[in-house]
Amino acid sequence: MSRISLTRYLVEEQRQRGSIPADLRLLLEVVSRACKAIANAVNKGALAGVLGSAESGNIQGEKQQKLDLIANEVLLDANELGGNLAAMASEEMDSFYEIPHRYPMGEYLLLFDPLDGSSNVDVNVSIGTIFSVLKKPLGSDAVSEADFLQSGQHQVAAGYAVYGPQTTLVLTVGNGVQCFTLDREAGSFVLTQKNVRIPEDTQEFAINMSNMRHWDQPIKRYINECLAGEEGPRQKNFNMRWVASMVADVQRILTRGGIFMYPWDKRTPDRAGKLRLLYEANPMSLLIEQAGGLATTGQERILDVVPHALHQRISVILGSKNEVTRVARYYKEKENTYATPQI
Ligand code: AHM
Ligand code: MG
User: Fold this and answer.
1) Cα of 291 to ligand 2 centre, how many Å?
2) Which of 75, 229, 252, 283 is least enclosed, having the fewest CB within 10 Å?
3) Structural domains of the chain, count
4) According to the model, what pLDDT value does residue 340 have?
């Protein structure tokens, strides 16, 4: 059987299964080309002078890396002239970017975290690009922030690229999750894993343990039970992994199961979490659910959350079904529930 490239996969999705229209196929092709360009920049690293921090910070007060800005520009440049988009929004930009009038305007909205895990850039640990595609609601021609504020269940496609030992692109257009690996010599993404499924049980968790003293009771309970191992209530030992790049942690969970948590914590009690709903939590939650896993804030399904701001943050707990269900149960069982902060 000949190799299936991303292009061929998308053409078949469009023509044989009718699961995506032609303009969405073209849009995803362009996004994948941008990811290849970002992979090249990441790969060159110090040789191209792209490591280190930029002078700027983003709207969320986080220091930007040079590669954050490069990846953001690559995605904007590649996608603005294709004619398939009405606007783009990025974790690294204060407000959304409307397609300039000199280019044709399409009906989709593209949202992205151009370089997730960028604190890992200089230490040569896997990083990635996360993206989400929405349809612009019908109505006026002009784009407004409100157009982006759709719950994650409305995403028509979502995915991420990981720039690691291999460059992989993981994609869903709503009928399962496919994993492609970049063949650098051929210059194309090749389908290497079809219909990825996450094991329902796991003995591996991912959380930044240094925040333990700040967590809420259900998370403390869950992790303490994992740490108690065979002698504890779970009667089995658990392993821990934390890459500090969500793309890499999610890749591991899609490959062998696990649970990933970046919950609300008391360090910044008025903030719902660290991760961004529109650029990180929603696309990852769609992928996880499409692969048979679950994604929750602890109190509600992430894909049901109706956003109220572009850069909104959220508590994230996702991965193997039975473990995520257990954490959600611990939240329910907690005596004094609190209202989830909304920013
Ligand atoms: P970023 O988008 O600014 O890189 O931040 C998101 C990243 C995630 O990839 C990762 O899971 C998390 O931040 C790590 O945070 P911490 O350093 O607090 O463990
Ligand atoms: Mg990120």
Assistant:
1) 21
2) 229
3) 2
4) 53
**Reduced to 3 states, what is the DSSP secondary structure of residue 118?**
helix
Q: In which band, very low, low, confident or very high, does the pLDDT at 307 lie, cut at 50, 70 and 90?
A: very high
Looking at the CA of residue 113, tell me the nearest atom of ligand 1. 2
Q: Are 66 and 122 in contact (CB under 8 A)?
A: no
Q: Which of residues 136, 169, 193 is at a domain's end?
A: 193
Where in the sequence is the domain holding 249, given as residue range(s)?
Answer: 204-338
Write the DSSP symbol of residue 281: I
User: 150 and 91 in one domain?
Assistant: yes
- Type of residue found at 264: W
Contact criterion met (CB below 8 Å) for 153 and 303: yes
Residue 229 lies in a domain: yes
* For ligand 1, mutation pick of 56, 66, 116 (most atoms within 8 Å of CB): 116
* Sign, Cα dihedral of 215, 216, 217, 218: negative
Q: Are residues 188 and 213 in the same domain?
A: no
